[in-house]
């Protein structure tokens, strides 16, 4: 599934379409996670004015309408020439003045919908802060975790706490800090939370700089692959040796997601019920 770095990279690769006018729209398959709006043809004649990202949504602002785009599990955008041959799972083609934009989604879990009051309220307004923003800091995360007894990996992947920290980047952040993914979130010390905020930001920035992770078939709208997967130390390496201690990496399931960790470098610490760990400097 494309995560924040992949969506950010996709958004950036779509920027050449800015200020181009939509001249035609072809819907080849409307049945995505939510149906492509029947009135999407209202975009004809409008210029694409702005592209932004919120969580894993791309917000596309046209002259009189705005759209909310989500890649789902297997979606991708591709900028191509009008004469290029379409592929089997190209469900939407937006023809601009100079190029065309194809939305490709084999599993059809993505969405192409209007950004309006209903979708804003339902999908955007309940989201937590962006992980790369100043509002995502040690004080904020400490307050959010103090009553959370779920594993820390589940907590930082909760979009109501912070958006966009997907499985890859949560796994790598916790491995680098030696924190067990199932460690109850409320038991992390202040020092651990501070380091976790810093590490999440570092990992995500690095992933964006490297164009995201191409693990299966992800590429940006220009057809370019990401390279962050070449730096992975834990994610996808269950059964291999830890790069730090040569212990075999193990896999457990948390929140329906596989979580790779090193049992030696990331021990599950026992919770001392007689005292709170918050504020300790270990």
From TrEMBL:
Q: Which residues form the FPG-type domain?
A: 233-267
The EC number of this protein is: 3.2.2.23, 4.2.99.18
> Which gene is the coding source of this polypeptide chain?
mutM
Q: Which HAMAP family match?
A: Fapy_DNA_glycosyl
- Indicate the quaternary assembly: Monomer.
Alphabetically list the UniProt keywords. Answer: DNA damage, DNA repair, DNA-binding, Glycosidase, Hydrolase, Lyase, Metal-binding, Multifunctional enzyme, Zinc, Zinc-finger
A Pfam family for this UniProt protein? Answer: H2TH
Q: Which reaction does it catalyse?
A: 2'-deoxyribonucleotide-(2'-deoxyribose 5'-phosphate)-2'-deoxyribonucleotide-DNA = a 3'-end 2'-deoxyribonucleotide-(2,3-dehydro-2,3-deoxyribose 5'-phosphate)-DNA + a 5'-end 5'-phospho-2'-deoxyribonucleoside-DNA + H(+); Hydrolysis of DNA containing ring-opened 7-methylguanine residues, releasing 2,6-diamino-4-hydroxy-5-(N-methyl)formamidopyrimidine
Protein name from the UniProt record: Formamidopyrimidine-DNA glycosylase
**Cofactor section:** Zn(2+)
Give GO MF terms, alphabetically.
8-oxo-7,8-dihydroguanine DNA N-glycosylase activity; class I DNA-(apurinic or apyrimidinic site) endonuclease activity; damaged DNA binding; zinc ion binding
* Function (record text): Involved in base excision repair of DNA damaged by oxidation or by mutagenic agents. Acts as DNA glycosylase that recognizes and removes damaged bases. Has a preference for oxidized purines, such as 7,8-dihydro-8-oxoguanine (8-oxoG). Has AP (apurinic/apyrimidinic) lyase activity and introduces nicks in the DNA strand. Cleaves the DNA backbone by beta-delta elimination to generate a single-strand break at the site of the removed base with both 3'- and 5'-phosphates.
Which species is this record about? Acinetobacter rongchengensis
GO aspect biological process, one term:
base-excision repair
Report which superkingdom the organism of origin falls in. Bacteria
InterPro entries in the cross-refs:
FPG_cat (IPR012319), FPG_Glyclase (IPR020629), FPG_N (IPR035937), H2TH_FPG (IPR015886), Ribosomal_uS13-like_H2TH (IPR010979), Znf_DNA_glyclase/AP_lyase (IPR000214), Znf_FPG/IleRS (IPR010663)
Key word Hydrolase present in the record? yes
Q: How is the cofactor bound?
A: Binds 1 zinc ion per subunit.
Formamidopyrimidine-DNA glycosylase catalytic domain: from which residue to which, for each copy? 2-110
């Amino acid at each position: 599934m494309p995560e924040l770095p992949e969506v950010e990279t996709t958004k950036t690769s779509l920027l050449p379409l800015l200020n181009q006018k939509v001249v035609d729209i072809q819907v080849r398959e409307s049945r995505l996670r939510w149906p492509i709006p029947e009135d999407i043809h209202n975009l004809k004649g409008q210029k694409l004015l702005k592209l932004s990202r919120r969580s894993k949504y791309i917000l596309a602002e046209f002259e009189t309408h705005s759209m909310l785009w989500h890649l789902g599990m297997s979606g991708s955008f591709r900028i191509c020439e009008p004469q290029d041959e379409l592929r089997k799972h190209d469900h939407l083609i937006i023809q601009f003045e100079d190029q065309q934009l194809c939305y490709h989604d084999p599993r059809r879990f993505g969405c192409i919908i209007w950004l309006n009051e209903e979708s804003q309220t339902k999908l955007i307004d309940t989201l937590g802060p962006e992980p790369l923003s100043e509002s995502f800091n040690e004080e904020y995360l400490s307050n959010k975790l103090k009553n959370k007894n779920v594993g820390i990996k589940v907590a930082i992947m909760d979009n109501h706490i912070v958006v966009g920290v997907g499985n890859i980047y949560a796994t790598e952040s916790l491995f680098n800090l030696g924190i067990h993914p199932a460690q109850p979130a409320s038991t992390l010390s202040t020092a651990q939370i501070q380091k976790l905020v810093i590490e999440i930001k570092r990992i995500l920035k690095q992933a964006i700089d490297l164009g995201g992770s191409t693990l299966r078939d992800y590429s940006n709208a220009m057809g370019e692959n990401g390279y962050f997967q070449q730096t992975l130390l834990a994610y996808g390496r269950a059964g291999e040796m830890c790069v730090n201690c040569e212990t075999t990496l193990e896999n457990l399931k948390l929140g329906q997601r596989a979580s790779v960790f090193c049992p030696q470098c990331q021990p599950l610490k026992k919770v001392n019920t007689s005292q709170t760990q918050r504020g300790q400097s270990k």
